[in-house]
Write a structure and sequence with these properties.
Blueprint: H1 14-23, H2 34-41, H3 44-55, H4 70-93, H5 110-121, H6 125-154, H7 159-183, H8 185-216, H9 219-228, H10 253-273, H11 275-286
Helix pairs in contact: 1-10, 3-7, 4-6, 4-10, 6-7, 6-10, 6-11, 8-10
Length: about 290
């Protein structure tokens, strides 16, 4: 089984640690605080709007907004479950057209099977497209849920309305940066994809070379040579046969590894995207 290199010592969200491990990136722990990072990401217009929201009286929301209840809790669970199921089913669907050892004809030659796998799956573009599609689905579903919860927070009036205004400003201000950072993930995963593929090719080449060497040093040939010349010096005896050739990796095993890693990254990204929703939920539960 092909595995990504292990790295330790980096703390932070699961998404960051996963990408660091899978891409073998030498990432140093940032010494900047979260507030320092945010100050670099906010534009001057966002800073003015945020200052006004924090230093002026919050607006009064007219009554009539829907109140928070267990129905919203269930809706949040439903959105998370639906997105997680979509990630699991969609990453599995990338293998739907791939010929696997279980679905290929029993007598299909290994080289022919490997060629089919290479033709169908060595192109990363399908994985990239599916990742981008799932990112769009997450952004839309979670954005709608966040807006709904924000409206319920704002309806409490007073400091709750201020919290909702601040959340709206931060959502609008950080969305471009969020899209840019998360949009870079498919490119990072391509590095992992290419490394797994090359490692599989190297393992197959080594197994083939070992098998060919074993055929050239067939013990039956050595025995026949000894019988033909029994007086040959002991030093001319045929060398001992090499160790049995190691079998090559199963066709497509590296793709199964990549799909599992891609699914783990998507689920970690889902957790990051849901953090603002969890914060609004926490506020609603305590109010």
């Amino acid at each position: 089984m092909l595995q990504a290199p292990q790295r330790t010592g980096l703390s932070g969200p699961t998404l960051i640690r996963l990408l660091t491990r899978l891409t073998d990136a030498d990432v140093q722990q940032s010494r900047q605080s979260l507030s320092d990072h945010l100050s670099q990401w906010l534009g001057w217009t966002d800073a003015i709007a945020l200052s006004a929201a924090l230093n002026t009286s919050p607006p009064v929301i007219a009554p009539g907004a829907r109140l928070f209840s267990s129905a919203e809790e269930r809706e949040c669970v439903r959105v998370r479950t639906t997105l997680a199921d979509a990630i699991a089913s969609d990453t599995a669907a990338t293998a739907a057209r791939r010929v696997t050892p279980g679905t290929a004809p029993a007598r299909a030659p290994a080289k022919k099977l490997a060629a089919v796998l290479a033709e169908d799956e060595f192109d990363y573009s399908s994985f990239r497209q599916r990742y981008l599609s799932l990112q769009h689905t997450m952004e839309t579903s979670i954005g709608n849920l966040r807006s709904r919860l924000r409206g319920m927070v704002a309806a409490r009036n007073g400091e709750w309305t201020r919290l909702a205004v601040v959340d709206a400003i931060m959502d609008r201000a950080l969305l471009p940066k969020e899209r840019a950072l998360l949009g870079a993930i498919p490119k990072l995963l391509q590095t992992h994809f290419d490394r797994l593929r090359k490692a599989d090719e190297a393992a197959r080449a080594a197994a083939t070379a070992q098998a060919e060497a074993a055929e050239l040093a067939d013990p039956a040939d050595a025995a026949a040579q000894t019988d033909a010349d029994p007086g040959a010096p002991a030093g001319d005896a045929a060398p001992a046969s090499p160790e049995p050739a190691a079998p090559p990796p199963p066709p497509g095993a590296w793709l199964d590894t990549f799909r599992a890693d891609m699914r783990a990254v998507l689920l970690a990204e889902l957790d990051v995207r849901l953090q603002p929703v969890e914060g609004l939920l926490a506020a609603l539960r305590t109010s």
